[in-house]
Amino acid sequence: MRRFAFLILLIGFCHRATFTPMGTPELEFKRGKAYFDKKDYKRAIKSFESLIFNFPGSKLVDDAQLYVAKSHLLLKHYDQADLEAQFLIENFPRSEYVEEAYIIRARALYATLPSYKRDQSRTEETIKLLERFIEAYPSSKFLGEAREILYHCRSRVARKALTNGLFYKKRGDLDAAIIYFQLVIDRYPETPSAREARYNLARIMEKRLRIDEARRHYTELADSLDEWGKKAKERLERIEK
Predict the structure, then answer these.
(1) N-term to C-term CA, the chain
(2) d(CA 109, CA 129)
(3) Where do the Outer membrane lipoprotein BamD-like domain residues begin and end (predicted)?
(4) Which of 2, 149, 211, 235 is 20 to 30 A from 112 (CA-CA)?
């Protein structure tokens, strides 16, 4: 709250200098929405922030806060959009816009995620946010989008773990490779990486003459026409010879 109070004071100073507030929150919101609809998001932000500063008791404050977050998102100010949406969630928990604020946060975080080859802490943060949202709002109109973003985030983390497994397999550290392949299979079974991980795990089992385990993994894959299904069928044919 201390941080926000400072920001509000700073905003207020800027508005007094460069942006004349309207006489009522309704007029200010109307002006901000007009700017927003014209895709003049910078002026829209100024107008909505003017409403928040000059009419803090208005019932339109959470509406304005949502549009501040949406405007920053559309300007690709992703970190600021995340902060503004988070502020709405934390300070207006009963607002009708909380669900949309969660999705704005998810969109903003997802837009700044690093390559799967890099540290995935931010991706894990996004996953936790989306899981909280899905649990709290199972009937939300944003549920489909939340699940889609969650799937892509989980696929990214799974790809990172798969890459680690392939690295250790290439080095000959098969015990470490098994750990990563099994992790992908167990935690991220719905992702594309899970099938590749299962195939590579089966190859290790076959190499170690654990044929029953290899056969089980190959059989899991063989019902598909994708790359790993075709390769699994070939390995099964060799095993059965």
Answers:
(1) 71
(2) 10
(3) 29-210
(4) 2
Residue type, 187: R
Tokens of 135: 């649990």
**Domains of the chain: which residue ranges?**
1-112
Q: Is the dihedral of CA 69, 75, 79, 80 positive or negative?
A: negative
What are phi and psi for residue 224, nearest 5 degrees?
Answer: -115, 155
Contacts with 97 (C-beta within 8 Å, 6 or more apart), sequence order:
62, 63, 65, 66, 88
* Burial tier of 145 (Cβ tally within 10 Å: 0-12, 13-18, 19+): middle
Q: Domain 1-112: which topology? A: 1.25.40
| Dihedral over Cα of 138, 142, 145, 149: its sign | negative
Tokens of 161: 């773990």
The CB-side HSE value for 237 (13 A sphere, CA atoms) comes to 7
